[in-house]
Structures are given as C-alpha cells and as structure tokens.
Amino acid sequence: MNIDFYAAFAIGLMGAGHCIGMCGGVAAALTLGMPGQERNNRWFYLLAYNIGRLFSYSIAGAIIGGAFAGMAAYSGYSSALISLRLFAAFMMIGLALYLGQWWQGITKIERLGQFIWKYISPTAKSFLPLKSPLSALPFGILWGWLPCGLVYSTLSWAAVSGSAIGGASVMLAFGLGTLPAMLLIGSVAEHAKQLLKNLYFKRASALLLLAYGVHTGYIAIKQML
C-alpha cells in the first residue's frame, strides 16, 4: 500500500462530518417503512448499503485511474503524472478549505455531477422502502454516484495512481475511511456523530489535510524543476 492509499483513507475519515450531512439522511431512510421485525436487522441494511457504495467508488476509481494512466503513457508518463499530482494537491487544499468552512469552491465541482445524477436518482429512490438487506446493495451501488466534493477530490488521487487497480484501491481506501461515520447513522452513538459534525473537529481535520496537500504540491513542484 502506497501513501495515496493512506491519504485517501484519511480524507474519508476526516471528512466524516460532511458524509453525515450528505448521506446521513439517505442512510437513515433505509429503515423507514420497514416492518417492525425488520428494524432489528437495520445493521444488515446499513452494511449492504455501504458495501454497494464502496463498490461504486472502486469502479469510479478504476475508470479514472486506468484512463489517466493510458493518456499519460502517450504524453510522457512521468511528467504527465507529476502534473496530475500537482493538480491533486490543489484539490486536496481546496477540499481542506471546504471542510474547514473557509471556502466553498468545491461545491461548484459537485454541481458538475448533477447532470448524471438526475437520471440515476429516480432509479435509486425506486428501491425505497427496502424489502430486504439484499435490496440495499443495489441501492448503495446507485447512491455511490451521488455528486460529492469529497469523492471528486479523492478521484484526483485515483487519477495519479498509475493504473486501474491503483485507482480502485485509492477509492476503496476513501470509502473505508467514511465507513465508521456511515455505520453510526441510525445507531445510538449520538456523541460520536456530534463530534464528527463539530466545527472545531472539522477545522482540525482540515488543517491536517491542508498540510498534506501543501507538502504534496511542494514535492510535485520539486520534481517538475
């Protein structure tokens, strides 16, 4: 596992408060309309939903990683990937500013995905209310394409992974980082959820991501010189 894998995991973990805001309502809705006896199995629904979501992230990472690796091979492999890594560093800096609520420019990138999402969303919603944990799996696969600044920022790291497998592993790591927060949805861990949404926690996490983004950009610039 390379540094990008751990960086992607950290983005998912530190952006947990954003995940609760973006997908928390969706995850909580999994149990709405269920028969009383099924609500006791809500963990199976949440797990299946999140497995589907991580599957979509991995597929997106494989597509982006493979596509950019192929393009870089035709344009001067090392120099192209170094330029992409510099772009990824800027994306991480932008994400850090977004998570810290200092700059909202990442939301403009989220809007780019709305065109596709308006076609996916009706199909995803057609699964509700869920009848079984198995039906939560395709629901999660579809909901994994929800436009999200965190996802798009991490995809920039998948782009510099150098391969489809590398891109998939980066996005899987990101998904695993978001998993603890998403599994808290609907549970009794209210204190943990309040911490993840706390502004001070968000800004502390944002500063760590900002430092890593600046460091990565510095290394990329040195390699270009």
Number of domains: 1
Q: Per DSSP, what share of the residues sits in E-state strands of 2 or more residues?
A: under 5%
Q: Quick one: overall form?
A: globular
- Stretches with pLDDT under 50, minimum 5 residues: none
Order of helices and strands: HHHHHHHHHHHH
The portion of residues assigned to helices is over 70%
> From the structure provided, what is the oligomeric state, counting identical versus distinct chains?
single chain
The chain-level mean pLDDT equals: 82
How many individual helices? 12
Q: Which sheet architecture does the biggest sheet show?
A: none
- Count the E strands: 0
Distance between the termini: 27 Å
Radius of gyration in whole Å, from Cα? Answer: 18 Å
- Structural class, please? mainly alpha
Q: Could you walk me through the main structural features you see in this protein, from its secondary elements to its overall organization?
A:
The protein has about 220 residues and is mostly helical. It has one domain. The longest helix is centred in the first third of the chain and has 33 residues. It is globular and about 60 Å long. The mean pLDDT is about 80.
